[in-house]
Amino acid sequence: MIKVGLTGSIAVGKSYVVEIFRELGAFVLDADLTAREVVAPDTQGWRLIIEHFGSNILLPNNEINRAKLGAIVFADQERRQLLNSVVHPLVIENQNEWLKAREAEKPDGIAVIDAALMIESGGYRRFDKIIVVWCDAAIQLKRLMTRSNLSEQEALQRINAQMPQAEKKRYADFLIETTEGFEAARRQTVEIFGQLKLL
Asked: Is residue 112 within 8 Å of residue 26, measured between CB atoms?
């Protein structure tokens, strides 16, 4: 099985690219969903986050208020590193189990894991190939402001909290640029899927 890590900064169009891979027949796992699962109420991750950040970050249904936690960690690098040190090992363990199950299901398949912080966490080393999705910085900023209803300052704070796009691109075996929109991104994704099938 070919294990592919797909990454890129916030608001560059990773979700769209992931959906194309799913359409083409790849197994796909979204690390955001995994990250939600490992901090669901009464899990080990949930307990650790409350221990470190307090119960005032909980919603009435006991789920973690992601917006509230996001506001804390995007404004404070130490708190962000603390959160990542809690969540990343749990996410990686979950992903490894998923990869094993997919490989048993289809040994000659292609499995794609989408994770924004794969390079930062060191998790990228587990993959055969790395795809970095990227776009023009001005378009990224505009997309993030629109998508998350953020001011320019708030959006820039989130973008600048991540590894710069140029640095991420240095880790890539394949690059997918989404600046030109959906169709151009789809063409690149289809082409890369074809190349992965030949490996």
From this structure: yes
Predicted structure pTM score: 0.88
pLDDT in tens, the chain (199 residues): 999 999 999 999 999 999 999 999 999 998 788 889 999 999 999 999 999 999 999 999 999 999 999 989 988 999 999 999 999 899 989 999 999 999 999 999 999 999 888 998 888 999 999 999 999 999 999 999 999 999 999 999 999 989 999 999 999 999 999 999 999 999 999 999 999 999 9
Write the CA distances from 130 to 3, 169, 175, integer angstroms: 9, 10, 9
Q: Is the dihedral of CA 193, 194, 195, 197 positive or negative?
A: positive
Q: What's the domain count of the chain?
A: 1
What CATH number is associated with residue 154?
A: 3.40.50.300
